[in-house]
Automatic annotation (TrEMBL):
It holds the Pfam family I-set. Residues 1-32 are annotated as: Disordered. This is Myosin-binding protein C, fast-type. Thick filament-associated protein located in the crossbridge region of vertebrate striated muscle a bands. In vitro it binds MHC, F-actin and native thin filaments, and modifies the activity of actin-activated myosin ATPase. It may modulate muscle contraction or may play a more structural role. One of its GO terms (biological process) is cell adhesion. It comes from Dicentrarchus labrax.
Amino acid sequence: MPEPVPAAKPEGEADPQPGQDEPLPADGESRSTELTGLFLEKPPENVVAVAGSDITFIAKVDSSTLTRKPAMKWLKGKWLDLGSKAGKHMQFKETYDRNTKVCIYTYEMKIIKVVPGDAGGYRCEVTSKDKCDSSTFEISVEGDTQYDCFREKTTFRFSTPITYIFLFPFSLIDRKKKPVKEEPEIDVWELLKNAHPSEYEKIAFEYGITDLRGMLKRLKKMKVVEPKHSEAFLKRLDSCYSVEKGKKIVLKCEVVDPDVQVKWLKNGQEIKPSAKYVMEANGNVRTLTINRTTLADDAAYECVVGEDKCFTEVFVKEPPVTITKLMDDYHVVVGERVEFEIEVSEEGAHVMWYFEDIELHKDKDSKYRFKKDGKKHTLIIQEATLDDIGMYHAWTNGGHTKGELEVEEKELEVLQDIADLTVRATDQAMFKCEVSDDKVTGKWYKDGVEVLPSERIKMTHIGRFHRLIIDDVKPNDAGDYTFVPDGYALSLSAKLNFLEIKIDYVPRQDPPKIHLDTTGNMVSQNTVIVVAGNKLRLDVEITGEPAPTVVWSKGEKPVTDTEGRVRVESRKDLSCFVIEGAEREDEGNYTICVTNPAGEDKAMLFVKIVDVPDPPENVKCTSVGEDCGTIVWDPPVFDGGAPLKGYLMERKKKGSSRWTKLNFDVYESTTYEAKRMIEGVMYEMRVYAVNSIGMSPPSLSSKPFMPIAPTSEPTRLTVHDVTDSTCTLKWLAPEKIGAGGLDGYVIEYCKEGDTEWVVANNELCERQGFVVRGLPVGEKINFRVVAVNIAGRSLPAILQQPVTIREIMEYPKIRLPRELRTKYIRKVGDKINLTIPFQGKPRPVATWYKDGQPIDAKMVNVRNSNVDTILFIRSAEREHSGKYELVLQIENMEDRATVEIRIVEKPGPPVNVKVTEVWGFNAALEWQPPTDDGNCEITGYTIQKADMKTKEWFTVYEHNRRTNCTASDLIMGNEYMFRVYSENLCGQSEEPRQSKNTAVIVKTGDIMCHISDMSCVPKFTQPLVDRSVVAGYSTAISCAVRGFPRPKIVWMKNKMIIGGDPKYLMQNNQGVLTLNIRKPSTFDGGKYSCMAVNDLGKDEVECRLDIRTEKHLSVFLAHV
């Protein structure tokens, strides 16, 4: 068990008296309290909050003396842990200032929009290994006061915190100004506490109390109610029970009668037996078992036996909601949609979304949208902007995840530029370009003038391709054409050349001629570059008479197909070579040969196919850091026929399907350092190669890797002990451990002035302490400690000064605990376990003595250690009482301490109990103290009497400290016997001592009662008084009458006899007559009269009762 830290109260500070006013804190604010135990600051003991407002409680803990981080719990009542209720209504926060040298943890509990259900007792409890401390406080919740405008003039203040009562004496009804006498201030609480319940309405009416019901509730709390003895229950239900959602709970009580039938109620409704609710009776034990509890079972329960009942309350704790699927990172451009998606363990769970430290809410004008689908929760940003860059968090009451959003501005990339065209009349001209964004639109211009569509001119936009098609080309179509994308400072231009055909007279015999842009022979070659997948069409003009024969060939193989992917089309004076969807295999030298009887001509072309490169290879992670990792890869085997521009990288979390781009601009090197990753999360990487044609397919994913870093250096390295050859070191764990955990510590040392460090431990030290052995005597040694985990060694923690290896002598000193400095009292049979710490070097010798003699090992057990000694008695007996002396010795030095132990038990009965004198209705008793006082002082006696006829014993006096007493109010003619119990610290004696003689109360004469002398006519001694009450509040009117024979009482309203109406309750208590009217309305107003009648006559009194409504009360208050 943790050792409780005692709370020290400053000397001279007195508790405030109940009647004194205490300063009241403002709503939602904490006030300072006295500093006790581990707490530097505690929540205030009593706080009154206004419903609907926010309130924050702060507790501060000093951890400078603790060996590990303290743990804080916020509890409501005895057992309800509020940690499971964290959410919108309750929020918890823990902070620790690392920049200061003072080790203080600050804990906060914030209640959002306080409701009446938050009222009650609370407790904050802090624990740390062997120490604990707690602080209790209470919250009261009140609504807004209805009559704020009268606070300054008509507010009285009482001892209950923040209770405002408006007192309006009805003497203010008179509008005429009259001199007002100064009356002393009256404490209404004292009037109500001392008054009979029938007088409550009268006091409320007299002092204008409107909230009488609320005052009576507070009055009930102020009154000390004696615990009512239960005649039906041997053992009641516990005050409350706590159970986790889905588990089973058993409510148990014991009844007196084993055959009695009980009823179980839930929130006042009877529970029927079912598979969920199982009711059992086993002898005197009655149990209610609730299976598979839900939040609906969080209620108040009752067990009813006849008119008696016992209560309890069941708190159902909801298990924490964990996050099963973590949030992914996003890397998008401006305007794209972002969806952060997570999965939780429970459907319908509450998830809080945060952007950095700002909570996101579902507002009408907000850019954020929240979506719930079973266990899936999604945060949607419709159009991302640069302001949305940052870290997004999702919180549940049992988990947390985060994801990063990176937004880049749009950059349009031209994948295929438009090319110049040369066409003939009536042919078709088509300009085509390709851009990186398929949503981008644009306009076409000719010589600076926008081109509009017509029957001959058409413009198309399909995906990333934009085309301008001109049918039946005419000479005026020649010019400069430009495509301008909308929203970008970019333009693509090309020229349309019109080819005029001139027909000249040719001789009949004309050798064939190939007309290319650049004609050549077998030595010089023309090169045509085609992008893979595009169409290649070579239109070659041929002249010659007669018409020459055209033969196309690739290498030595002629191409003769007129249909298919690779084909030859022939027209008049024109030969067309077409490749549909160019492939890498189509690359090579092509020859066109034309012949006729007049001669031959040849031309050679080299067709080069360019494509996107192959994906990079061997992508792997070579090193990692706390939030980064270094990635390397090999260039692609095939660069696509065009030089590589660089690479694009992507990453994703393992198990996720969403890849995040790491760069938008191409990266030229084959080594890349990925940053801004989350430590402890597995990642995968892949790489794209980019050339002038486009982007390659992605590479294979790298093996999963985890960003991880060594821990920070150990903290608070200190020297605990030094001897002639050893040095004991102690330290605390590193402040930052990380996901790599902590494997252990390495301890190193070196002599002062040396630079070579020697490892002191062969294996990692898992504890936070180590004894370095084999050190040279008298040398000055430097020490350092390094933390080690999977990522490597941390920075070392080094002692500021070298340590001199030499034994330190310390005098023996006994640290006797405060409770042992006075007499130590225990009951017979109790277990005694005394732990007494001491100090001294070298190790002192501890010896125990009892009453000057060495203790008997058979009666008392003793265990000694290096720092303390323990005295243990399994079962204490009276012979164990005495003075125990502890002697602590180091050679010729010693220290002594004495502990006095007293073992007590119940005393024996008194002796010589006798009746010494009898007079009138009284009897005097005397006795002597018991011979056995139980080894402690006699604190009092209990005296009982019994009639010799009934022999039933009744208590006359309790805790009587004298050895004599007088029994009064004895009944004449009876004979009484007496018995006496003695009392001490352990309780009453087991057996009483009965008196040796009895007391006889003799009759002194006959008492004659003459009825005729007592006969009298009914006469009212106290009349009825006129009253004015508020509608809806029960009231009563009363009077007093005397008469003999006992008169008959008749109550009337407006001269009409009040019959058995349940609204009226008539009471007669020894001549005091009361008529109670339950919740009167305006129809109950009028004249009420009371008539008393007997054989000698009658008498009658009357009064008037006025009923006021709330409207009349408001008018009256406004007038006041």
